[in-house]
């Protein structure tokens, strides 16, 4: 067993173990009196401190640059540079760690003490200095220095951890940026034209990647499948399910679950049957807590007829050519929650000049700073205001109106499908001119 370092105090002659906190600490004594410095140095060395001495403030500043002392004991009255002046210069120096500064003085006036504190002193010792009081004050300084060192070490550890987190965040941002490109690749066609019908799509994720998906695919020469999907959440899990659903609704007959029925002599499954297929897929194959809302519609552009299923998605809004707006559907059940859901189909005829908008809840649930939702009424107001606009111009204006309403804040993905039947051009006739 290692024996502790011991010293003999001049007052009692008893042997005492040196506190471990004092070992390695460097104290700088600053006094123009060599005798005063020697007396204090002996006490400090016996207490386990390393001691340096300076006879003036300027010499002390040079030693501070070279040795970076932990504690400083400085006389107040010295030729050339006083103790407070030296303290102020010491505080202005760049250094690693805190330096505890004690002024030695015979001054006891409150104004003098305030002057010393303003200069940056931490404590005062009245001359002549008592050995017991000196060690007591240094013990108090030790506690402060130890606390400062622990805090600095904790800050260094926190800074290193934060740097690692920033590096991880940057890597994640790069990965998410690439994922966004891949997800945008699923959103290939942003518009389509079928006889006298125009399709326009809008997709605005709230973050790098989202859980909304819109698109369409041809079923045959007369019909088009149109889908709008909103997966719960808008993070990585939602994006992965969105990618899987995009594959199932691609233009490929082998992959598109709505077109697989063509192999059995039927050109496509019904909208309600497609919703049931996805519901079983989520419950039996994917087995996740994630669900989604959906509207899947079949547009018969030869007859001007739309048949659709609403599975928990916001109500489609039908705007007639005269400006009247109708809300379609009863809401329906989301996909992936219930084992035996009921999915109702809706049929509607679109006349020339009519249009149908299918928007996600990121549109209707946009809120202003007061917390009021835009709602279906707000979307209807936007449709009336922009009645003269068509296609992507209408969708961009709608997106701008939503951003203005929410003061630029967007907490959810925004997606929409706009189905428009072009109006029959009016033929203008003029009366014959008199000859």
From TrEMBL:
Transmembrane segments: none annotated. Keywords: Coiled coil, Hydrolase, Phosphoprotein. Residues 144-185 form a coiled coil. InterPro entries: Bact_Sigma-Reg, CheY-like_superfamily, PPM-type-like_dom_sf, PPM-type_phosphatase-like_dom, Sig_transdc_resp-reg_receiver. Residues 26-142 form the Response regulatory domain. The modification 4-aspartylphosphate is found at residue 75. It comes from the Bacteria. Pfam families: Response_reg, SpoIIE. This is SpoIIE family protein phosphatase.
């Amino acid at each position: 067993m290692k024996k502790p370092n011991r010293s003999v105090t001049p007052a009692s002659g008893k042997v005492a173990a040196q506190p471990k906190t004092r070992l390695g600490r460097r104290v700088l004594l600053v006094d123009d009196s060599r005798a005063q410095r020697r007396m204090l140095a002996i006490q400090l060395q016996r207490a386990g401190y390393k001691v340096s001495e300076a006879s003036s403030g300027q010499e002390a500043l040079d030693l501070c640059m070279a040795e970076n002392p932990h504690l400083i004991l400085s006389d107040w009255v010295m030729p050339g540079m006083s103790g407070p002046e030296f303290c102020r210069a010491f505080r202005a120096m760049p250094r690693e760690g805190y330096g505890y500064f004690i002024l030695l003085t015979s001054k006891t006036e409150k104004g003098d003490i305030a002057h010393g504190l303003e200069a940056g002193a931490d404590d005062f010792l009245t001359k002549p200095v008592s050995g017991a009081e000196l060690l007591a004050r240094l013990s108090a300084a030790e506690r402060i220095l130890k606390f400062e060192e622990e805090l600095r070490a904790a800050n260094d550890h926190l800074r290193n951890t934060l740097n690692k987190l920033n590096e991880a965040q940057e890597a994640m941002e790069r990965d998410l940026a690439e994922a966004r490109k891949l997800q945008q690749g699923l959103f290939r066609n942003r518009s389509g034209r079928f006889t006298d019908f125009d399709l326009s799509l809008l997709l605005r994720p709230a973050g790098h990647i989202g859980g909304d998906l819109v698109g369409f695919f041809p079923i045959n020469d007369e019909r088009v499948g149109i889908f709008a999907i909103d997966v719960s959440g808008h993070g990585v899990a939602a994006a992965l399910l969105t990618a899987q659903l995009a594959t199932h609704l691609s233009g490929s007959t082998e992959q598109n679950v709505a077109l697989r029925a063509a192999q059995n002599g039927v050109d496509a499954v019904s909208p309600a049957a497609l919703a049931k297929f996805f519901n079983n897929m989520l419950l039996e194959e994917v087995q996740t807590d994630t669900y989604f809302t959906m509207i899947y519609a079949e547009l018969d552009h030869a007859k001007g007829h739309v048949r659709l299923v609403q599975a928990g998605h916001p109500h489609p809004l039908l705007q007639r050519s005269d400006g009247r707006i109708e809300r379609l559907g009863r809401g329906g059940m989301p996909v992936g929650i219930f084992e035996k859901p009921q999915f109702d189909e809706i049929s509607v005829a679109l006349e020339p000049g009519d249009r149908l908008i299918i928007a996600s809840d990121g549109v209707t649930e946009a809120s202003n700073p007061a917390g009021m939702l835009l709602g279906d009424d707000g979307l209807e107001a936007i449709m009336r205001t922009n009645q003269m606009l068509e296609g992507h111009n209408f969708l961009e204006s709608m997106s701008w109106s939503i951003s203005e309403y929410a003061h630029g804040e967007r907490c959810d993905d925004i997606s929409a499908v706009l189905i428009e039947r072009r109006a029959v051009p009016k033929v203008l006739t003029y009366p014959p001119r008199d000859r």
